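Researcher: Re-running this chain for the archive, since the previous output was lost when a drive failed. Same request as before.
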Amino acid sequence: MRILAQLGGRPASVAAKPVTQHIAMLQAASMTTGQIAEASGINVSTVRDHARGTLPTIHRTTAEKILAVQPHQQATIGFVPALASIRRLRALYAAGHTAHAIAATHPDLQIRSVDYIVRGARRFVSVANQAAIAHAYVQLADIQGASRRTQARAKAEGWVGPEYWDEDSFDDPHFIPATRDTPRYIRLAEDGLELEHLQGYTRQQAANRLGVSKDALQQAISRYRAAQTQAAA
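Model: Regenerated structure tokens:
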């Protein structure tokens, strides 16, 4: 907390570099931008901007809140914005997973809740539901579901599958899946592997260069390799 203490007595705006470095440390500990935003109470877009290191200064109060976040510090009670949960569920629907199959992955998930959230009927979800949906996504994202009806619904609604998302994009309100391009996880994995194999970057360094968390890059590479193995089978 030494950096935080150094802010005492300074003007309202302070240098942003210590905050950018702190965010990089949190990301190295596998915290996503969304998790940092939730733990600090700061808007996710603000955290993302300072993670990139493009802003020279930051409001003192904002800096204090971000610097106070410790690795793996997450909210355990209350409610959070539903955006990331809605997007994860819709991606699973696009992959053919039903509300019943999704709810079956976690005891805290109810079919009715899945149905309400995927329809966008809730602006906020409980922390417990958010965590359960994130767990369901990890369990099912790389598995093809069996429901053609669910896939048809997703297609009609314009919902896209897991291949167009990564962990850092779910809670970014400005992110729009580029469905006409190569799936995002493929581009991210190939860029990351190129940085590692051709330029000698570590995985954390590659993630920093690509503007994502180490965990997001790791998941993209794992999905990429799994898809290659499946295609070769």
